[in-house]
Amino acid sequence: MTPVNEFNGKKVFVLGLARSGRAVALLLEQLGAQVTVNEGQALEDSPQAQELLGQGIRVVAGGHPVELLDEGFELMVKNPGIPYNHPMVVKAKELGLPIWTEVEVAYRVYPHSMIGITGSNGKTTTTMMVAAILEEAGRQPVLAGNIGFPASEVLPQVTTEQQVVMELSSFQLMGVEAFHPHIAVINNILPSHLDYHDSFEEYRKAKWAIQSQMTADDFLILNWNQALSQELAQETQAQVLAFSTQEKVNGAYLEDGYLVYQGEPVMLAAQLGVPGEHNIENALAAILVVKQLGVDNEAIQRALAAFSGVKHRLQEVAEIEGVRFYNDSKSTNILATQKALSGFENSQVILIAGGLDRGNDLSELLPDIQGLKAMVILGEVAPRLEALAEEAGVASYPASEVVAATKQAFELAQKGDVVLFSPANASWDMYKNFEERGEVFLAAVKELEEA
User: Where is the Mur ligase central domain (predicted)?
Assistant: First the structure.
């Protein structure tokens, strides 16, 4: 861990626990800060709060009294999931406190070369692809951020021989100042999390913050299929490298079925271990990252051919009686489901979709669902999905929840078909998060396997 004196004696307010809050509180205490943790859960319901108390860290649990902030704090470090309209955050703004996420604290104890990856869709898969290639090349990748372990838990232990790969959400990036990756990827920027961000413009700024400290010695990797990326490329000090499935670019692109880096074929797209055009984009981004680190084509080929996907992101689960099952629970928006469908022949797909109704324009899905074998629909948005299916000329079947939907889809399928669980909507009407929803689907498929 790099010696850091800036936190010694500083009064720091940590808002919210979970894993990242616990990790940053322990790190700040180690760095000599006077830490107060504020957790909404009651003390008896929060093992993390009890642990911190046992370590001698001050914890105020069971609510968020705004008067706590009148104690002369110099910094707030908030859990990324807590929105900026939360009363404690509003009060901190009024007091002029810097408001960071734990990524910023962690970076200051490890200000060395790292890779940062963000985007509305594809960031988890790209992060895992990069890590898989670096592992194959013997580069000792360490995952942190929005995937793996909290940055403030991992980075203090990392050596300069290891390569840090960080997946970063817009929530995390809204709270960074000095954070400075050597290589950054923005897979895409599309309307998302607008219930957290006040506007698309605020969301865009949060994503764009990943490059705010980058210089001409750094590399920013952008999706050239997006007009917005091309516009933003004019607004960075970093060297811009592009990836595209539509044209030759300064970077990596798809040409004659090959993934090509700066004119050199790296591997056939058909060799990728995961289907879909979106995974070709993810692979191109990953190739650009590792090529800046000198990784050879053989390591890239081996890693990407063996790459089987990320849990809940177009994850191939099983084949039962010739029917393949895919878990794409992480598809919480329309674009993600469009990308998932692009990897299959619609006439062989039974799509399970539905969830929280956020009022999205479902008509954007219309061309993508035409020709589907069937749809099984569920959740709050089901009536609107039923109308959409009818407009597309696709038979739809209602289901009360994911287990019933999975069984219904299997009954409709024949050998050679695909059951694709790609909801296109958030999970919160029925499940705690997309992971829980995906686990229910996985359990339902396992039950069918064992029947």
Answer: 117-289
